[in-house]
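Hey L., structure's done. Input below.
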Amino acid sequence: MQKETVVTVISKISDRPVNLDAALVVIYGLDLGRKFDLTREETLIGRSSRSDIQIDQESVSRNHAAISNTREGVRIRDEGSTNGTFINDELVEGERELRNGDLVKIGRTIFKYIAGGNIEAAYHDEIYRLTTMDGLTQIYNRRYFDEQLDREISRSRRYERTLSLVLMDIDHFKAVNDRYGHLAGDSVLKQLASTVRTRIRREDVFARYGGEEFGILLPEVALPGAKQLAEKVRRLVEKQRFEFDRQAIPVTISLGVAVLESLHREPGDLVRAADERLFDAKSSGRNRVIA
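Output:
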């Protein structure tokens, strides 16, 4: 009896995804916190409804980028998009390998790439981090700031220590968005946060308070010291070169400074005091500090 030879066809086994524990998590933009598993050989990202990851924004091309997951690793390539694909603020030219923790920016949306043996644990860690950090600027967010404000006010009153608050606002930020585009506006916010972060103490709380507004909480700093810091930050921003797509963007800020007083019954009272001085700084000509 003649034996039959059984032939098993293995097609494209070398192209099959091997890193099944890989995902993108939205850390800035719509669908904040959403996780996209990268379990396919190729995942398309773009504005088109046919995209695997759809980002419905004008700054995103219909077919913007593609992520491949093969034995060669997880790689991303730009598909000739209008505004480019960025990894850790660097433009992707051709194709680039993704590494755990990389920040992927497409349009105004920022993803964090996570990979490893326990992707669910990494995902939940990232979700927890999103409760305290602003995804765009990588400084504290409003929620964390408000929590620390409550804590520091209680501490200040318990130990009779001084506490100051600085609120700052980018001058004519709407004009920046209108003239240079929202991508440029996002870049200005990131550059501002990076610039100011170098001038504050470890115990200070620096946060994006909302939109183009930022706050600095200064424990055990009296009004003269807070005003001095605010003026130093104002001059630093005025001298700093802000640019996007090799185009310089002039940026200045207005700042309001307040100190915790006995008449401040609630945390919001201190915020309102600083906000009133910020309003005075803006209405009296901008690019100045009012305390």
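The longest strand covers residues 163-170. Residues 7-14 have pLDDT under 50 and may be disordered.

-- N.
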